[in-house]
Amino acid sequence: VGCVGVLLARAGQRLQVLNDQSFEHETQASTGGTTGSWLVTFGEGRCTSCSEVRDALELADEELRSAYTIPALVDRADSAGLWKRFGIREVPTTLFIGKGKMVRDTGQSKDASDFVNFVNNALEASTVGEKVPPEPSMIDKLLDMVRGIFGSGEL
């Protein structure tokens, strides 16, 4: 799984851990083809507020799952592609994803009840939200590799 750091290192946790390889397969975010929704928090290993969000999600886990929403974590160390895809610029960032749409938590959610309320509001307003960005195509991935090798200059 790579370097997962403090954000994900917790014995017995039920929170789903996602990364560049597993995200689309597990969530089916861009197609909306999954049954249920996801509450995904993007964080990084040594971030104190990320750990606090993780703890809140663990407390809310059962209630979120009863609303057919799976809480999950994405660590920066093994998910650079997801950070780019979703435009993540600060941590922690939490997204509600369901039916091909996503709603960004504005940072107001601090504890378990806040996250449950955020999910309930997102579920009630199912037509609200941004379209989930598509997975990068193979051509996009190849271009990123070439840019990485030769720099970010124009080809």
From TrEMBL:
InterPro entries: Thioredoxin-like_sf, Thioredoxin_domain
Limits of the Thioredoxin domain: 16-120
Pfam families: Thioredoxin
Domain of life the protein comes from: Eukaryota
TM ranges: none
Signal peptide (UniProt feature, chain positions): none
PANTHER family to which the protein is assigned, alphabetical: GH08893P (PTHR19991:SF2), L 2 01289 (PTHR19991)
Name listed for the protein in its UniProt record: Thioredoxin domain-containing protein
Source organism per UniProt: Polarella glacialis (Dinoflagellate)
